[in-house]
Structure formats: C-alpha cells, structure tokens
Amino acid sequence: MSKLPNMFSIKHFLVVSLALNISLILRIVYDNEDGLGGYMRLRKTTTYESDTESRTEVPITHRLRLSTSNFANSTSTDHAEDRDRVINLDHGDPKMYDKFWRKMGDKTTITIPGWQSISYFSDTTNICWFLEPEFAKEVVRLHNVVGNAVTEGRYIVVGTGSSQLILAALYALSSHNAAEPIDVVSAAPYYSSYPLMTDFQKSGHYKWGGDARSFDKDGPYIELVTSPNNPEGHKTGPVLNRSNGLLIHDLAYYWPHYTPISSPSDHDITLFTVSKSTGHAGLRIGWALVKDQDVAKRMTKFIELNTIGVSKDSQLRAAKVLKVVSNSTEEENTQEGESFFKYNYEVMEQRWKQLRAALEANGLFTVANFPNGFCTFFNKKTENLPAFVWMKCEKDIEDCQSLLSQHKIMSRGGKHFGVSQRYVRVSLLDTDENFNLFIDRLSAMQL
Amino acid sequence: MSKLPNMFSIKHFLVVSLALNISLILRIVYDNEDGLGGYMRLRKTTTYESDTESRTEVPITHRLRLSTSNFANSTSTDHAEDRDRVINLDHGDPKMYDKFWRKMGDKTTITIPGWQSISYFSDTTNICWFLEPEFAKEVVRLHNVVGNAVTEGRYIVVGTGSSQLILAALYALSSHNAAEPIDVVSAAPYYSSYPLMTDFQKSGHYKWGGDARSFDKDGPYIELVTSPNNPEGHKTGPVLNRSNGLLIHDLAYYWPHYTPISSPSDHDITLFTVSKSTGHAGLRIGWALVKDQDVAKRMTKFIELNTIGVSKDSQLRAAKVLKVVSNSTEEENTQEGESFFKYNYEVMEQRWKQLRAALEANGLFTVANFPNGFCTFFNKKTENLPAFVWMKCEKDIEDCQSLLSQHKIMSRGGKHFGVSQRYVRVSLLDTDENFNLFIDRLSAMQL
C-alpha cells in the first residue's frame, strides 16, 4: 500500500521540479531583458539550432502542413532533440527569408574590393552626406514599384537600422531649448522597444510619456505610429490628433506580403527597414522619408554625432537586394522570375492558415480576425498576414508568456507592450523548423 | 588722372570682395559645424575632386617631393582648377590609404552572397551577441602581431565606429541612479568631437565637464584619454589620477605607422577603429577591449538600444582587411609581400619631411618636435608621425584657421579643441594631390 504513493509522488516531484526550473530560467531572462540580449543568456542553458540546421535546403511545400490532422505526424520535429529544444520566437528575427534568398542564387551576391569604403563621405552634395547614391536610387525605385510610399519631394536619411532613425527623429523633432523634455507617446499595445529606446539615454530633449490614449497633458508631444501595428498587426493611425503633436510613422511592415497596400503613405517622417521588408536584419539598414529639409538635416546631424554615418558596405548590399526585389516583381509580370512579394505572401498565408488551425484545436487563445483588403500592388483582395501573432489567453490564464515558456516557446508578454500579461506576441518569421515546432506545441497544448 | 584710380579701385574691390566671399563662406560653415556635415554645405560653392581624380594610380615616388626647392615646380597642382580648389583638411578623411589597398589588388576583395546577414545575431554565446567571431579573431591576431594591446582576458565589443563605442562606454560607466550626471573631462587640446558627442543627447547620465586640467570638483568623473593625442600627436596619459576617476583610453592612433609602439596597452577600456588604423572609414567599424564583464555587458546593451547591433557586412570586411594587414606583416618578414605598416610609415615619414621643410620656408607657424622612440614592432627607433599637424601661428596672427581658409585650406581651429584660435589642426591623411597642394600653398604663404 505504501509503495505506490511513494513512487507516484517522486515522479510527480521530478516533473514539477523540471517544469519549475525551465519556468524560472525563462522568467529570470524575461524579467531582466526586453531586448535581444536576453537570448544570449538563455543560450547557455538550451540547445539552439545551428546556422547549418536552420539553413537546410528543403522545398517549402515539404515543410508546410495544411490540416490539423497532420499536426500529430510531425516530420523533422519528432526527434528527441527537437522535443527538448527551446524555440525563440521573441525577437522577430527574420530567418524565414533565408530560403528565398538562397533560391535567388548569386543574383544578390556582391563583391566589394579592398579599396572601397575608404572615405567617410558618400555624396557631399546630399544633405545626408553618408547616403550612398545607389541605395537612395533603389529605395525610390522600390517604393514606386510597390506603391507604398510617396518619395517625390522627400529627403532620404539612411540609418543603422530604423532604431537609429527613431532616435534621430526624436532628436530632430524636439526643441533643444525647451525647459522640459517633450513627451513621446504611442497607443498601447506599442512596440516594446519604444519606452526603452526613448529613455535609456535619460535625454533632456524627450522622454517616454506612455500610452497615447491616456496622455492628458496640454503640451507638445511626439506620437509614434506603427502601421501595421507591432504587436497587433492592424493598420493604425495617430490616436491623439492634436495641433501641437508631431508624428513619426514607423511603417516597417507596410509591405504587400504582410498587408494589403491601400495607397502610398504620405507622412512627415516615415521609417522603413530592410530587416522586415527583405529580411536582412544583419545589415542594420533602415531609411527615413522626410518632408521637411530642416528635420532631415537634424536627423543627419544626430547620426553624424552618434556613429559618423552608416556602413557603406551594408548600404551597397541593401541597394543590390532592393534592386533584385524590384526586378523580381517586374520579371514576375513578364513570367520570367519569382516575385519576392508573391513568394513571401504565400509563405505568410500558409503560416497563418496553420496557426489558425492550431489555435482552433486547443481553444486556449484568441487572435483577431483581420478583414481582407484590396491591394494595389497585387491588384486584388489580399489578406492581412502580420509578422507576429498577438494572442490573448482565455480561461483563467493570467500569464500567457509563462504558459508558452512552460512549453519551451520564448515569446514576449503583454507587459512589455503596455498591456496585461494575458497577451503575448510570438514571431512568425523564424525558420520553417521552428515555426513547425511552434505549431506542433500549440496544437498539442492543454491546460 | 581720374581714370587710373578708378580702374585701380574696381580691381581692388573685386579682389577684396572675392576674398571676403570665400572667407565668409568658410566662416559660416565653421561657425555652425564642428563635425562632418559642414563639408556638404561647402560642396556647392567649391570644386571638390571627384572619386576618379582622387583615385588616379600614380606611383607614390612621382608624387612625393623631398626638398623645398621642388615646391615651386609643382606637377599636377599647377593646373588652374587646382589653384582655385578649396582643399578640405578638416576631417581626417583617410583617403591616403586608397593607394595601398589598390596595390593589394584582390587580396582584400570580399564576396557576400545574398542570404548572408539575415539574422540579427552573430554569436549568441558571446556577451557581445552581434560580434562576428571572424572579426573578433582577427582583432586579437592583429594586436598580437603589432604588440600594441593586451587582449588576453578582455571582452571585445564591436561598435559602429569608435564614436558609438565612446557613447557606449560613457553609458556603461555612469551610474544610472545618480542624482547628477557624471562629469566627462579630457585634457585640452582634446578631440573636438568629445564635448559635442557627450552633450548632444543632453543625457542625465553624463555631461561634458571641460578641460581635465581645470576640473576642480570632488565628485566622480570620466576622463577621456587619447594617446597619441588628437590633435597634438604626443603620447599622453590621464592628467587627473584621482581615486574616483574612471578612464576611457581612445587609442585610434596607437599604430606603428603613426607612433613608436613602446608596449602593449593595458587599460580598463581601450578603443580602436579601422578608420584610422587601416583607413576604412566608410566601414564604420571600431572595437573596444574591455576588462570588466559588467562594463562589456552595459556597452553591449547600449549598442542594442541604439542600433540593435553593428553591420555584419562591415565586420566581415574589417575581418578580411585586418587579416591582410597581419599577413602582410608576416610576409614582409619572409620577404614575400609589402607590409602595410612599413609602407604607410614611409608615406607618413615622407609627408612629415615635406611639411617641416614647407614650415621652415615660411616661418609663420610652429610645430612641436617629437622625440624618436624605440618601436617594438619595427624593432628599431622610429619617428612620431601624427595623422594631423597641430600648428601654432606666430607673429600677430590671431586666427590660424582663417589664415588657412584665405589660402583655400579648410582646417579646424583651436577653439574646437578647447584652446585659442592661434592653433589649428590640419589632416595629413588626404590624397597625395591634396597633400601636395597643401604643401605648395603652405610654402608659398606669406603674411
């Protein structure tokens, strides 16, 4: 009689203890870090897929599975190492794009001779004197091809990723003689890095003012508008609309594979980045389209004082990549090539189908439904296919991030975006292997 | 009688008016801008040599002239366009190095396929998770080859140029809970960008405290030490040496072609940059050797919040360039190649010879004499050959920068370095064409 309860309790103790360990490790990492650095700490306690693994060349059709009935029949994800592997879907690391660029072979290969990039200067006739003319040309061409932004009469400012451009824009828009720093606001849920980026320098020019919806001061302010929104995925606009407000539009995801392109954006300051458009996050290249000359000058000055310009090599690579994206679109129209946007729209469409099926299977989370919209780029109705899924836990689950971490899925909880931990953001841009693991775990998940 | 004075006064008026125009344009640029942006504004009013012109392949021996008697017999600089051309020796743009790298042919050529640099991450096991392992390896190797820095037990943090690393170090060293920002000081004449970089964000963490020699507060401080010093060229150390002081050593010029390497540097935080070591300013790559793990973590965090890492492409290019520099040194020892440091030491030696001869010819300026020193790298006594010449105007000249600008030489006046305008800094790292024009104008200069 006494033997059975004893064995039972030891097993139970072991399971509870292991779950607690994993949960605690993840919690420590998350509570301390909102940025990318947390990844590194976790690395030592888990197995992370190597570059080689994540870059295995497998035709996309073999990886993607359509129906929920297939979820039990995992292929590569059946291995023991995969079952134990923590998958990091916190950061939106765009590894999904690796496959398309490998398919393109040497079309985007670039050769840089040793004597290139000696001078600090790229174009001394341009306000943004470190902007490579070739990159500027391809930015304009791509926006014209896609129809997602007005470029005429705009100054282009290149940045070390759009992060640097957000800081440059805050610097440019704030009055440097003001007694108080200007408030920087954004409607919750807002991009989790906005408060951190705004406040880490403890600048006397600007400070984080919180959720735009609850901003009740009379003074001037800067509103950060992310559309489609990160984390939610909806198209958005400013929520305050007061005469003393200044706007920065972060349109990182306003590309046809994520959202229907309704019309060319036409704002005072609009930010884009290659990290989320073409998937080249390691290039650290973003660009701003700026209406006002003086703002463009001040943004340039910021980047001059911050980093004395932006890597020429990465600008040249970005120029080549944007050129191939534009070419691929034009070739698609003449049936000669594979369109970057069409290919990646199909990947995202497939991923969202799997995701919705998995969510339906477990019933633990709710996710918004997005209306289809007419896309001027594809010239037909297309779906809204955000780069992240923003999930709300149902039933009595108070901490959605912790629930996922118990299932070895690293994600980013609602508190980082200014809302409750019942919400969580999960990246959909990882490798097929990791995305499939996520889907498998999600569909098998039970309370 | 009336005709002659009239003609005379019209001619005079024209000359005076033209001189005034040039002087005013230069003055506007300089008064508003200390950084690189001023160059761009001037561009529209002057003729600046095109890339093609500056990259003409002419053997260095044909360009360099040894004795003052040759100064009148200029070669390429005799053209009318050269006589009218403003030469920009303000920034230290290292165009001199173009020639060496062209000589190296395809040794430093790099080919990057389109699928490279997709992920944000370079090495998730490293504190500096965006540091490319290949770049880190070549940094360590080069320091070992040159013997200018201890790398053992150091953390390497890569930055978008050493500018970003200076800011990262200020952020890392300051106490974020302090009531007052920590004072940042440097001994005058200090690098002109230090005050601007420290204060442009109006940070609550740190603020510019001025000349270290006149710093009389009791509290904690950060001292920036540039050795060899920019602008002076002397080897320096901290001037305060108090127990509550923190040090950042900026050793951008501690390479054997500029100064005798006396021993490996061994400081808490040491900064280097490819801009001034190999001449690749357009890469925007610098690195820090950091003793304390926590400081390395905080510097990494700064770069994460500032630019989410550093261009991978430029790190890979920098790795290749550093590798070729190390190889060239080893090949030189086996008589197989041309040593980067030997070649560029000879260029600098030649330039300083021409410069001293020209200065002797006109007697308007004084320049320090530097003692020779034993260089452990060259294993012999070598000269101190700074990248800039720091000149003091003699006689009654109050504004040395204005005097040079009247001779169409853009330079940086003493006030930017915390001293009087009787001093001026002139870059010696420009193309042979521009350097020769500078020497010609200097030797022909009269009050």
From TrEMBL, chains A, B:
Cofactor(s) for this UniProt protein: pyridoxal 5'-phosphate
Family that this chain belongs to: Belongs to the alliinase family.
Annotated signal peptide: 1-19
Example of a GO biological process term: amino acid metabolic process
Known partners and oligomeric status: Homodimer.
TM region positions: 12-30
Alphabetical UniProt keywords: Aminotransferase, Membrane, Pyridoxal phosphate, Signal, Transferase, Transmembrane, Transmembrane helix
GO molecular function, one term: carbon-sulfur lyase activity
Protein name in the entry: Alliinase C-terminal domain-containing protein
SUPFAM superfamilies per record: PLP-dependent transferases (SSF53383)
CDD domains membership: AAT_like
Pfam families xref list: Alliinase_C
Alliinase C-terminal domain location: 87-445
